[in-house]
Amino acid sequence: MYRGKSIGVVVPAYNEELLIGRVLENMPAYVDKVYVVDDCSIDKTINVVRSKRNFRVVIQRHKKNLGVGAAIVTGYRRALQDRLDIVAVMAGDDQMDPGELNKLLDPIVEGQADYSKGDRLSRRGLAAGMSTWRKFGNSLLTQLTRISSGYWLVQDPQNGYTAISREALNGLDLGSIYRGYGYCNDLLAKLNVLGLRVLDVPIPARYGEEKSKIRYGSYMRKVSFLLLRNFLWRIVVQYIYPRPKLPGVGYLSGFLFLSAGMSTLLASILARPNIKTGVLLFLTGVLQIILSLALDAFMRLKVSRTSPFDDYG
């Protein structure tokens, strides 16, 4: 128990035989349950977990490799069955310091957030050890995820060190969460549509012996499509159906102007009519979308709060 709340930690693991033992050894004493989800590892991960098993550790195994998002959902489902108050996620590669877990729990315990997440980007020094390429990629994905999710001040959306309340988990359609590494971006969009409060908690990056399993070319391509899909879904759900709102009308008209402009420009290349019409339509569409983005940001900031939780940083 932590401050009167029962705590569960989901530990997704795929080929983590070298480091997962350290994660389990350093798990805080106040954690009630540790759900280790072995995503069909082909090394000795499961043997290491069994050697560290105690009354808190619950082992779940996938018969085939489903992805880190799917592993986390498996742990979430079991935590809901056990009716734990707060459920955190801590990777099996020891990148997430168990000593920082309380910083994620405090905002939820005190009713300040429904979902809290680590942030390595908002302060100088938090990203120590992160490569320049990784910083650039995270910064780019931060901007894209803000647009996609509607959390316009969110930092470091790729950070998987998180905690969520049981009430928030109950509201999510867990079966629809993205199964791969883009699960954290996908989850943010779903949390926003539910109107839940997300808070960034400054936690330093920690890099050591672990090796990233992400193939960045494939990852960026898949996550880019995911972010676009979530953006369009969010706009429809929040602003178009069942009752149209001003940002939705703006987005819709902007996309229509863009489409008309591009069609006219293409026709100009082939048949050489007046190109000015195509340019005017295209620019009108761009302006309409920019204005809709600004209005979207203003409206979402009014109903949801996403900012570094400095009192716990």
Helicity, in percent? 40-55%
The overall strand count is 7
Low-confidence runs of at least 5 consecutive residues: 305-313
Any idea what the radius of gyration is?
22 Å
Shape: elongated
**Widest beta sheet: strand line-up:** 3-2-1-4-6-5-7
Helix/strand/pairing category: alpha/beta
Q: Return the string of H and E elements.
A: EHEHEHEHEHEHHEHHH
Largest sheet, strands/sense/barrel: 7 strands, mixed
Can you count the helices? 10
Distance between the termini: 21 Å
Summarize the structure.
The protein is of the alpha/beta class and 313 residues long. The protein has helices at residues 20-25, 45-51, 68-81, 101-109, 132-149, 166-171, 183-193, 216-240, 246-271, 275-303; strands at residues 7-13, 33-38, 57-61, 86-89, 115-119, 162-165, 198-202. The protein has a seven-stranded mixed sheet with strand order 3-2-1-4-6-5-7, sandwiched between helices.
Could you please describe the fold and organization of this structure?
With 313 residues, the chain is α/β, with parallel strands linked by helices. It has helices at 20-25, 45-51, 68-81, 101-109, 132-149, 166-171, 183-193, 216-240, 246-271, 275-303; strands spanning 7-13, 33-38, 57-61, 86-89, 115-119, 162-165, 198-202. The model is unreliable at 305-313 (pLDDT under 50). It is built from ten helices and seven strands. The longest helix is centred in the C-terminal third of the chain and has 29 residues, at 275-303. Helix content is 48%, strand content 12%.
Characteristics of this structure?
313 residues, seven-stranded mixed sheet, 12% strand, elongated
